[in-house]
Amino acid sequence: MIDKIKELISEAESFKAQSKDEVEAFRIKYLGKKGLLNDFFAEFKNVANDQKKEFGQTINKLKKTAEDKVNALKAELESTEEVKGIYGDLSRPGGEPVQIGARHPISIVKNQIIDIFSRIGFNVSEGPEIEDDWHNFTALNLPEYHPARDMQDTFFIQTDPDILLRTHTSSVQVRYMENNTPPIRTISPGRVYRNEAISARSHCFFHQLEGLYIDKDVSFADLKQTLQHFTSEMFGKSEIRLRPSYFPFTEPSAEIDVYWGGLETETDYKITKGTGWLEIGGCGMVDPNVLENCKIDSTEYSGFAFGVGIDRIAMLLHQIGDIRLLSENDVRFLEQFKSAL
């Protein structure tokens, strides 16, 4: 009897299985209620006393061998199934092709602008969308009660009037100047918020990209040349004009117009309102007060800043007639931009 059990131990140790069904059949044969082990335990009472110890030890060894084999085979098969699951059944026929997503038009235009300026040495800086009064207004030459604050209808946090949703990414420029020394050459893309009525041409949130260049002997001519390079690369049009304007953080300040031309078509006529010129942003020389607020010596350094609306440029380049389409996440609208990936 003991020799028979030893043969079964060897058989169990060498057993191999290709499926869970084979493992289960092995388990039932050895460990089931009507399995071999139960038969041997039932026979234990008929074994001679001088053989009981060896008989019991051999039965226990068979039981442990069978249990270990079952557990090992199960783990091996499960591991094989997991690896196979990564790719699925490679023998299956091909189904419907996986749909490719489309990059959002805002991301497309933002990346194009970043690429243009990165080629002339500008890095990218980012900052929080929830800002404090100092970085959004005061450091930018807009002290408390300054009338120019009314130019931007602001979303303030009611529990703390010093905290607000940023109205421009100029706040990022302030943070960058506070933590970096000239020369500075950076662009700051991001989402901004203003309490404006929502319509086809305006929204309570939109996207800006602002640029900042500070170094010794920076002039207005440097600003114009930079803008001409940008409009040439972005629109294929390099003729620009700078109209005098007012911004609290730049002096002198100007609006940026690019010559669009093309008054022959109704679309271009609407884009430029019949003038041939299209306004794309604002710019100017950084006010010395802003430099001093950021601990930069205005007697040694000068600089220029500019800002463009990413949404407006996206609408212009892709002929989008309603700004609300940019935030409604309509898949039918977004699928049109697959070719721009």
From TrEMBL:
<dbReference type="InterPro" id="IPR022911">
    <property type="entry name" value="Phe_tRNA_ligase_alpha1_bac"/>
</dbReference>
<dbReference type="InterPro" id="IPR004529">
    <property type="entry name" value="Phe-tRNA-synth_IIc_asu"/>
</dbReference>
<dbReference type="GO" id="GO:0000049">
    <property type="term" value="F:tRNA binding"/>
</dbReference>
<keyword id="KW-0067">ATP-binding</keyword>
<dbReference type="GO" id="GO:0006432">
    <property type="term" value="P:phenylalanyl-tRNA aminoacylation"/>
</dbReference>
<keyword id="KW-0547">Nucleotide-binding</keyword>
<dbReference type="InterPro" id="IPR045864">
    <property type="entry name" value="aa-tRNA-synth_II/BPL/LPL"/>
</dbReference>
<dbReference type="InterPro" id="IPR010978">
    <property type="entry name" value="tRNA-bd_arm"/>
</dbReference>
<dbReference type="Pfam" id="PF02912">
    <property type="entry name" value="Phe_tRNA-synt_N"/>
</dbReference>
<keyword id="KW-0648">Protein biosynthesis</keyword>
<dbReference type="GO" id="GO:0000287">
    <property type="term" value="F:magnesium ion binding"/>
</dbReference>
<keyword id="KW-0030">Aminoacyl-tRNA synthetase</keyword>
<feature type="binding site">
    <location>
        <position position="251"/>
    </location>
    <ligand>
        <name>Mg(2+)</name>
    </ligand>
</feature>
<protein>
    <recommendedName>
        <fullName>Phenylalanine--tRNA ligase alpha subunit</fullName>
        <ecNumber>6.1.1.20</ecNumber>
    </recommendedName>
</protein>
<dbReference type="InterPro" id="IPR004188">
    <property type="entry name" value="Phe-tRNA_ligase_II_N"/>
</dbReference>
<keyword id="KW-0436">Ligase</keyword>
<dbReference type="Pfam" id="PF01409">
    <property type="entry name" value="tRNA-synt_2d"/>
</dbReference>
<keyword id="KW-0963">Cytoplasm</keyword>
<keyword id="KW-0460">Magnesium</keyword>
<keyword id="KW-0479">Metal-binding</keyword>
<comment type="similarity">
    <text>Belongs to the class-II aminoacyl-tRNA synthetase family. Phe-tRNA synthetase alpha subunit type 1 subfamily.</text>
</comment>
<dbReference type="GO" id="GO:0004826">
    <property type="term" value="F:phenylalanine-tRNA ligase activity"/>
</dbReference>
<comment type="subunit">
    <text>Tetramer of two alpha and two beta subunits.</text>
</comment>
<dbReference type="InterPro" id="IPR002319">
    <property type="entry name" value="Phenylalanyl-tRNA_Synthase"/>
</dbReference>
<dbReference type="InterPro" id="IPR006195">
    <property type="entry name" value="aa-tRNA-synth_II"/>
</dbReference>
<dbReference type="GO" id="GO:0005524">
    <property type="term" value="F:ATP binding"/>
</dbReference>
<dbReference type="GO" id="GO:0005737">
    <property type="term" value="C:cytoplasm"/>
</dbReference>
<feature type="domain" description="Aminoacyl-transfer RNA synthetases class-II family profile">
    <location>
        <begin position="109"/>
        <end position="336"/>
    </location>
</feature>
